[in-house]
């Protein structure tokens, strides 16, 4: 496929996924897509070289449907990036904070600004997209209506920031995965020169007593740090459970290789989704937590 130098993201221009594209791949053109499925398909079809997908937020938790989408996407995780989510209340030019009666945004952002909205008596209006809310406010030209969105969305749609950094928590951060058609398992450095690698995979345990406990034992005995383990149902039945995991290390490293080998004894399926450099934020948070 001919390179496009393009990275696809879900949402309108100015979405936080757009900000993630600018942050992690500033040399690439960002391609907006209406849905996560269409974002994946843009990369899979060759319309884009990469896809940017949000997987979890430090305040709101995991992004719905993404963990179901990743194993079926046919794409591979090549990188991760963490975006600090600064939320602005954006109004039309000339509007004042005291004019605003309602704020429009995606339910995730509305939930992250409850304190500010309650303090100012602002009603909430749920929308499908943060940047799309900014666009709607710009088109309505109503000083009583504002949007909760990124500063980037304000710049794009010509809105005025009536209040900035209004999120309830000062460490509000979203983790994104950068996906591509071809896997890359070569050891490589992150943007800060760090060499820590991450491995992400999904698996299903065999239907035997204590299978999950036994499967996890290999990571503990080999000293492998598992940073995430989540379960979700598949195929619409309660008895079919798939697990998503992130671990520190490269599959070729002896400790992780042994842990993954032991895991296979207790699983009916195991798929590695990607091997990629750890974002520099991981190291800084580890230091802060010591």
UniProtKB/TrEMBL annotation:
Q: Where is this site: Essential for prephenate dehydratase activity?
A: 174
Pfam families attached to this UniProt entry: PDT
EC identifiers of the protein: 4.2.1.51
Which Gene3D superfamilies does the UniProt record give?
3.30.70.260, Periplasmic binding protein-like II
Substrates-to-products reaction catalysed? prephenate + H(+) = 3-phenylpyruvate + CO2 + H2O
Q: Which organism is it from?
A: Paracoccus suum
What is this protein's record name? prephenate dehydratase
What residue stretches are annotated with the Prephenate dehydratase domain? 6-181
- GO process annotations (BP): L-phenylalanine biosynthetic process
């Amino acid at each position: 496929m001919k390179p496009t130098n393009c990275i696809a993201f879900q949402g309108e221009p100015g979405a936080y996924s757009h900000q993630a594209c600018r942050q992690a791949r500033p040399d690439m053109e960002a391609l907006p897509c209406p849905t996560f499925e269409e974002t994946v398909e843009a990369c899979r079809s060759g319309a884009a070289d990469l896809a940017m997908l949000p997987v979890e937020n430090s305040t709101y938790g995991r992004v719905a449907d993404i963990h179901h989408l990743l194993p079926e996407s046919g794409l591979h995780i090549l990188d991760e990036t963490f975006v600090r989510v600064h939320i602005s209340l954006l109004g039309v030019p000339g509007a004042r904070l005291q004019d605003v009666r309602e704020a429009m945004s995606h339910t995730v952002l509305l939930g992250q600004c409850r304190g500010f909205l309650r303090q100012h008596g602002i009603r909430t209006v749920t929308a499908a997209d943060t940047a799309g809310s900014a666009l709607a406010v710009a088109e309505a030209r109503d000083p009583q209506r504002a949007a909760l969105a990124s500063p980037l969305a304000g710049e794009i749609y010509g809105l005025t920031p009536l209040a900035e950094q209004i999120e309830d928590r000062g460490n509000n951060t979203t983790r994104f995965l950068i996906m591509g058609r071809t896997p890359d398992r070569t050891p490589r450095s992150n943007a800060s020169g760090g060499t820590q690698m991450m491995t992400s995979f999904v698996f299903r345990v065999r239907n035997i007593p204590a299978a999950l406990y036994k499967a996890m034992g290999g990571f503990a005995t080999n000293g492998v740090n598992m940073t995430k383990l989540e379960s979700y149902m598949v195929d619409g039945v309660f008895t079919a459970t798939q697990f998503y995991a992130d671990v520190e290390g490269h599959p070729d490293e002896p400790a992780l290789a042994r842990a993954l080998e032991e895991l296979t004894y207790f699983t009916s399926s195991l798929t590695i989704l990607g091997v990629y450099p750890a974002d520099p934020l991981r190291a800084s948070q580890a230091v802060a937590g010591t």
